[in-house]
Amino acid sequence: MVFENPNLQVPRNCGRRLMPAVLDEVAESDPQRVFVSVPRSSNLADGYKDIPYGTFAKAVNKCAWYLREQLGKDSMPKTILYMGPLDVRYLIIILAAAKAGHMAFFSSLRNSLEAHLSLLDKSGCDTVLVPSRAPAILSQIFAARPMEQIATPEVDFFFEGLDQVQPIPFTLTWEEAKTKPFCVLHTSGSTGIPKPVFVTYGTFASNDAHQLIPSLGGKPTLINYLSGQRLFLALPVFHAACLTFTLVFNIFGGVTCVLPPPEPLTADLANQAFLHGNLDGALMAPSLIVDCYNHNTYCVNMVQRLKFLSYVGGALPEEVGNVLTTRIKLMTMMGSCETALHPLELNPDPADWQYLTISPFLGHSFRKDRDGLSDLIFTRDPRFELFQGVFRTFPDKDEFAMGDLFEQHPHRPESWVFRARTDDIIAFTTAEKLNPITMETVISTNAKVKSAVVGGQGQFQASVLIEPYTYPQSKEEEDQFIRDIWPSILQANRDCPAHGRIMRGFVMLTKPEKPMPRAGKDTVQRHQVLKLYAEEFRELYERMRPHVKKDGVALEVGEEKEPVEVNGGGDDLDRRVEEALQRVLPGAVERAVQDVLARLLAGLTGQLPAVGPQSVPERPSVHVNGKVNGVAETTNGVEEAVQTGPPELKKVIYDQLGENIDIRDIKDDSDLFQFGLDSLVVIDLTNALNTYIIKWRPGKELLEPKVVYDNPTVERILNLVEGAGEV
């Protein structure tokens, strides 16, 4: 694996450099080097336009002159809010503000009015740049708070007449700037109102220092691996992670960033970038990766067009990651506004895709917290001063706790996997505790679920709030929706402690007029959701209270006679367990026994069907079209085992064909072209077959459409897929 770009040697003063100054240096020494690649239009099929350093640096100078003209050449330093279309102006403005002696402030377009006003007050911001297509929230801000308003020109303005633009030198030295704020960002707001973070020049420079680690005897980190590669950033450009790559890893490390158009980041848009962006890799939110994974065409293009895929901002479901890592280099990333990106080593084993291996040059430790989890702690250490950007953000602190809980790798003690925020843990009235993150991740993987938040703080058991992609329009549709997603909830129940399982009566849906609040990187703000739906959760538990025994144990809804306890003991439960074991032990493997016990403990009643031997699936449980393979479903109150393992390939083929042509008279040996198979159907079928291979046949080569033309029968396609060569 190549970690270094020979054209980008570690420079002098690495870790002590300032971005505006380095921008000008590169523009002078290598003006044609690509700074950023932007879409030519909202239709990515029109291609991308590379903006070289020489051009971009002049655009920054033009914007800096514009700010001086509007604010006054000798005005005191100001904090300047910008909120607008998610285009390259964000990158121009943040650097231009610094060169003009001011400081840019970016507030997420998703923030509430309350959050915006709080951030403006705490950051001391009274000036705003207003684009022609201003977000609606700005008018609400102006109605609530007086602001100095400055019109922001369109993008083209900053790239016109550049030959006449005079440079504005950046004269601050390292010692003057290392603890001086460069810009204002804010925390995600996952635990309440977001807080402003004054990100210093030194904070971002700590990521520049990552390039020094190999020369100091450490292992290469992400900045070494990504140097010289084209990275698609499917994140809002105002977000700290996006700025880390578009500015820091770009200017300091030579990463070329490819931006999306200023539109909502959908799986369709990401797929267009895969096709037309000339990409090496992508950085995406986990939810967007799942959306691409659940679409045949997008999934195939993602693994065929990219060399690596990275994610940030949340957990990627294991069911998805375990499949993708067999086809593509999959990497998790982590950092924060306060700390910048952590120096992450690349894991040698693809199976460890979700583990973080943080370079010891960060000077960190993992402090034991609870339930076998540990908190990530930074402690000031003069030996690692260049790498500890957090103490440039907070120069008065000697210790900083991330508030993230990790679990150690069972065999590689230097590697850790994120499990939860310290403030995410749910405490029930039974004194039991639950980490809801894994459950939420599993449920959200269902193709019909946009997001899920598990509740139950201070209650007797867990509940879940579901945000659908498509809202049911009637009670019947809502009941069907819950039936469709129930296998995913059962999967989450199987993977969590018995006291945290979700009963069917404890599921509710969001309201269309009250979508879940989200942070800039599209992650759900859990605590804001719980606050927004506090009344609905209260009503849910009041409604369910009659179904709870005096000892606080929940019962399954509708069980009036001899109710079965959940999360508790009792003679009735013991008898049922004994009877079930007598039925299933003969010929049953351990997994089947666990399934029966899980169903009993989940409070489900009725005559349990005999359970035969089951095998562990070849691949993890994977959500396909809203279903979960290998998970029990419920019919008439009784769970029935769904066949474990991959779906039948013949059914996959016929289902895909049936979406486009009449299959009623097709036989396995029929020539499909005689029944309407055409080029478009061939492409859809090829994508469906390749998705099957990706998810269920690791190591098999993917197919080209030509092989379907050469083998136009179901029978020959079956033989073809099962006989595909090894990669």
Characteristics of this structure?
6-stranded mixed β-sheet; GMP Synthetase, Chain A, domain 3; 727 residues; Rossmann fold; Non-ribosomal Peptide Synthetase Peptidyl Carrier Protein, Chain A; 33% helix; globular; 3 domains; alpha/beta; Ppantetheine_attach_site; single chain; 30 strands
Word description of this protein:
- The chain is an alpha/beta fold and 727 residues long.
- It has three domains: 19-419, ANL, N-terminal domain (Rossmann fold); 426-544, ANL, C-terminal domain (GMP Synthetase, Chain A, domain 3, 2-Layer Sandwich); 649-722, ACP-like (Non-ribosomal Peptide Synthetase Peptidyl Carrier Protein, Chain A, Orthogonal Bundle).
- Strands 2-1-10-9-11-12-13 form a seven-stranded mixed β-sheet, with helices on both faces. Strands 6-5-3-4-7-8 form a six-stranded mixed β-sheet.
- Helix 1 crosses helix 2 (53-71).
- The protein is globular.
- It starts with 18 loop residues before the first helix and ends in a 5-residue tail after the last helix.
